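Writing this down once: the sequence line spells out the residues, with the fold written below as integer tokens. This is how one looks:
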Amino acid sequence: MIEAVRRAPCAVAAWLRGVWDGARTYFGLMLLGVMGLLWTVFAVPLYHLLPRRAGLRVGRWLIHWGFRGYLRVLQLIGACRFELSALDALRGQGPLIVAPNHPSLIDAVLVISRLPGLACIMKSSIVDHPSLGAGARLARYIRNDDLRGMIHLSVADLRAGHQLLLFPEGTRSSAAPIGPVKGSVGLIARQAGVPVQTVLIETDSPFLSKGWAWRAIPRLPITYRVRLGRRFDPPASSQDLVAELDAYFRDVLRDAMLPLPVPAMVKHDD
């Protein structure tokens, strides 16, 4: 009886902590959705009114600052800690492929928040999404549903002097430390003649990783840390580059701070 009384305050504290973590988690997710819907109101007319080049610049600039503000809110409510300043060194370095590993859904937000003007290859389902697609189309982000078209548009964007965000795995990591590297990164780098800058994203939580159950509440705060990895020169062989990238990521991320295994209770595809 006495032991039960002693444990009661701890149980109450744990319950309150869970409620607070849940409130911050769902607030963060809903805030991102609301921001997307609000941006859609402006992005739709701007897409039709602005010339392509102006729309691209405005769209990418506003997404950059929107994501930067969003991450700031997550910090202020104590939901996340971010160490992203390493990305700032890539500003003004000319066209290159920014190639991070992909542990969670928030990874693109992390990178774009530090690199204005960045092009991005996105899943076609996101481009078609009612609250996200209009802004992506205004920014002329590149769909991934047509491989030949994706490569053509990516090469053109790089030759125009922009940097390109491309996740070499093509989707969130399906295994630790990464899933298989896809061939598109090698094809684009070879055809555009640009280097590939690897980026190492580390986190201490499996939140929003592949297999994460949406009803599950993570323990907060979550830490996200970004480091610059090796830069690979423009390749003569796309296949050799893909093999080198795969081996490099597996070696350098072996002892990194990566998400814990996700229980196989509910699976979600990207």
Observations:
- The CA atoms of residues 199 and 228 lie 5 Å apart.
- The domain at 2-252 is CATH 3.40.1130 (Glycerol-3-phosphate (1)-acyltransferase).
